[in-house]
Amino acid sequence: MPTSTELSNARHHHSDASTHASHNPPNALAQNAEPGPSPDQSGNPDDDDSAGTDGNTATHARTVAAPTVRRPTIADGAHMWRIASDSGELDVNTPYAYALLARDFHDTCRVATVADEAVGFVTGYRRPEAPTTLFVWQIAVEPAFRGRNIGGLLLDALVRDLVDIVAVETTVTQTNDSSRRLFGKFADRHDARMSESPLFAAGHFPDAHEAEPLLTISGLAH
């Protein structure tokens, strides 16, 4: 999502920029570093990245373990920042911002762990004027754990827990095909409708940035 969003919401929203810009929370849009074997400017070819191994037995054991999804704690803030920084795809917020999200918005954020190690996260918040709408800000998964649908698991677990949420919003650039697939498949799984409308134009940003149209997924079936 900038998310988006992760929402939804990487640079090129949920996108994959090769440079990491540090932003304070009010200025960072939703972005998602969605997993995929070969991330392009907009994420991966799959919903989730392909997990790679280097032949090391311990590494291989970690990549095949089943992920667990839970609410983040303040201690997870540093891990979320690291995952965002390592993604090579997100507009990276400050470590302080991730600590605040983990403390103040833990109900609308989730962390995925494997063997007690944080390997992915999604951040989001409820729209103040529409409390039954969830805005997905960022989704990111460690490169070594991509290709396992962890991004989809994070979204599904979050919406499953938020039983009163009837719609999900995120922003995704036109070139971010992987994020669009991620949210399209999420909408299909939940028998929901996905629509697109203008939101942030390129001129709204002080740097070189693509427009961030709004994706709205409504009519969620829990």
UniProtKB/TrEMBL annotation:
Enzyme Commission numbers on file: 2.3.1.178
Pfam families: Acetyltransf_1
Record InterPro entries: Acyl_CoA_acyltransferase, Ectoine_EctA, GNAT_dom
Domain N-acetyltransferase residues, every copy: 67-212
GO MF: diaminobutyrate acetyltransferase activity
NCBIfam families in the record: ectoine_EctA
Protein name: L-2,4-diaminobutyric acid acetyltransferase
Gene responsible for this protein: ectA
Region spans: Disordered: 1-71
Keywords: Acyltransferase, Transferase
